[in-house]
Amino acid sequence: MGTPESHESSPRRGPVLLALRYYGRELARLRLLTGPAMLFPALGNIGINYIAPLVVAKLVGRIAGGAGTGFAATLPYVLLFAGVLLLAEALWRVGLHCLNRLDARGIENLYVIGMDELFAKDAAFFHDNFAGSLTKRVLSFATRFEEFVDTLTFSVFGSLVPLLFGSIVLWRYEPLLVVALLTLITLTGLCVMPLVRRRQALVDEREEAIAQVSGHVADSLTNMETVRAFAAEGREAAEHRSRVARSRLLMLRSWDYGNLRIDTLVAPMSVLTNALGLLLAVTLGGGEHGVEAVVVAFTYFANATRIMFEFNQIYRRLESSMTEAAQFTALLQTPPTVLDPPAPEPLRSASAEVRFEGVTFAHGGGKPLFEGLDLIVPSGHRVGLVGRSGGGKTTLTRLLLRMTDIDGGRILIGGQDISRLRQADLRGLIGYVPQDPAMFHRTLRENIAFARPDATDAEIRRAADAAHVTEFADALPDGFDTMVGERGIKLSGGQRQRVALARAILRDAPVLLLDEATSALDSESEVLVQEALWRLMEGRTALVVAHRLSTVAGMDRLVVLDRGRIVEQGTHHELLAGEGAYAKLWQHQSGGFLDEDPAPSGATPGDEAARR
């Protein structure tokens, strides 16, 4: 099956065109820089490679024609030659000044656009792609803009515009020169294009292999503690060597194809063009055009030959920039499944009642987990979701957050269908604490304030006090300004969970979702944090997922889920008196947690994960 990214389609015409559209929009948006950045170097090339030789040709023709060669006769040509070169240099400098700013502004804009596109993706997208590979692709999407624009400026626009100027001048001397030159260039292009298309397929494979290397590196480094715990450094290093070796082979195949096949074809065509230019120049030298035409024709054909010689390098630079950009835009062609409605409703009700009405849902199009599920959580009520793993407890919280969409039915908060709200508005109503809280590689203060960036230091401190974060924060080297490390690696599991609780407290949202919010806490800390949670839940609608039944025994109502069905609901005492599923779970508690039953016959670990 391969890694998740192996299912992505290789960048082909569609993603490349999409990347070109993004780059083209930036060039159009920054047109006040684009115009001079591309035009002035081209004019400078015309001055250096075409007008200056033309001045020399005029001077040589004058001398060959027997005109005077004294200082007075030669000085105007020399001054004109020097003036052309100075003007060309000035144009180059102004063009480079504009080009530098065009590159910098374009890269900045594309960084922002790339991240905006990723932020618009849903949770399923990030489950299917390596974070390291996404990082490489979004960075390449932005930074390759510089190589793309520079190649257009110097190698494409800077060569074709002067070549057009040269063709007009050659036509003035002899139309046959232009016909011969353009014919050879066209023939070369027609012969090369099939090879270019084949090389593009090889480059696609190469870039995919490089992306796989980046993804594996990020995956291994992110999970380095697990790698070390299982003494798997050797295995991971061997896997890395294998991936790198494959990318090396694909690199060589694509490079060799370009150097051995494309260059092998272009080189003789370039020599033929140069030879033809020399032949025609000498032939014309005996005619009415004289030595001036010989110099002009030979020089201009030599310029055209140089462009042909550089074709493979020009193509490879464009190919490299567009292929890497297309690696990112290929991802954008996978549409998100969770979208904001075209005309979202504004939040209307102050009520925080939560309703699941006839909800049907299946993971990945498989067998439905929920079929016609109905559940009402009145505003201000605290409901515990309990049951063995695979019952659907965590899935309910994800559906309420719209991390994924239901297949049928409705979910309402305050009487409003959540699918008709902006996702940002919906999630603004909810304070969420997951079982494995994520931390940013930022300060402890920033991690807490992530729930509400405009919070004051006093508000952050109060939330930290309530979640018992202050107890360990004050002992850290820099207190609340301590960097917690990637994914909070410098904090213990219990400390990370307290930080997540502080976020929820600071969020001050009307609906609380707590998914095993105290599972990583020691017994003493749990007692303290539970007190804070009970205070936090007062007056709020709360759905609390728990395996440790003692943590939810005081809830207003308990809902027992089993394989997507509600099998019982009521208070702790009512359910115990009923001697049903909940009572059996309570009796089977071991150390405060539920004993897990083995997976059903024929089920796989993936099936169990899908039922969570």
Overview of the structural elements:
The structure is a single chain. With 612 residues, the chain is an alpha/beta fold. It contains 20 helices and ten strands. The strands form two sheets. Strands 6-7-8-3-9-10 form a six-stranded mixed sheet, with helices on both faces. The longest helix is centred in the middle third of the chain and has 53 residues, at 233-285. The protein is elongated, with a radius of gyration of 35 Å.
| Shape, principal axes of CA atoms | elongated
Mean pLDDT across all amino acids = 79
Radius of gyration of CA atoms, rounded to a whole number? 35 Å
Number of helical segments with 4 or more residues: 20
Share of helix, binned: 55-70%
Across the major sheet, the strand order is: 6-7-8-3-9-10
Quaternary structure of the protein: single chain
**Largest β sheet strand count, sense and barrel closure:** 6 strands, mixed
Flag low-confidence runs. Answer: 1-12, 590-612
The number of distinct β-strands equals 10
Report a brief summary of the structure.
This protein has helices at 13-29, 31-64, 71-119, 123-127, 131-173, 175-222, 224-229, 233-285, 290-309, 311-332, 393-400, 423-428, 444-449, 457-466, 470-473, 493-507, 523-537, 572-578, 581-587, 605-611; strands at residues 354-362, 368-377, 382-386, 408-413, 416-417, 430-433, 511-515, 541-545, 557-562, 565-570. It has 612 residues and is of the alpha/beta class. The two termini are 23 Å apart.
